[in-house]
Amino acid sequence: MAKKSEESSKQQPKGWKPAGTQYAAPDESGYVPKKSDWTPPKQDFKPPKSDWKPAKPEYKPPKSEWKPPKENQAAAPQKQWIPPPADGPMARLMEMGFFDTALNQRLLVKFDNNIQKVVQELLTLKNKDWSQ
């Protein structure tokens, strides 16, 4: 009995085709695409004439004057960002994010370099442009 059920499951339904063969070519289906009167335009483009010529075989590029630095020789200093001096009340205000130096200076003079009072005044200002 087991063999009979296996054989019947192997039989495919009528009209069944494997997945790769289900495509019907246009001539089999009867589909004919519409004819078009369009033709591509003629190409009138002509590339420009060039007077470029390859280098002569005896051409040698100029010698380079550059030499790598010696191992014990220090490399030339590059432009590097140098942080502002970290001492003084102005630098501390800048570290806190108060970058308006004119306003900071005016408030430092007003409060006699008392940073706590300056920060409190900056935070209570209605115009919050102290970060620019």
TrEMBL record:
It comes from the Eukaryota. Transmembrane segments: none annotated. Residues 1-88 are annotated as: Disordered. Residues 43-70 have a biased composition (Basic and acidic residues). Coiled coil: none annotated. This is UBA domain-containing protein.
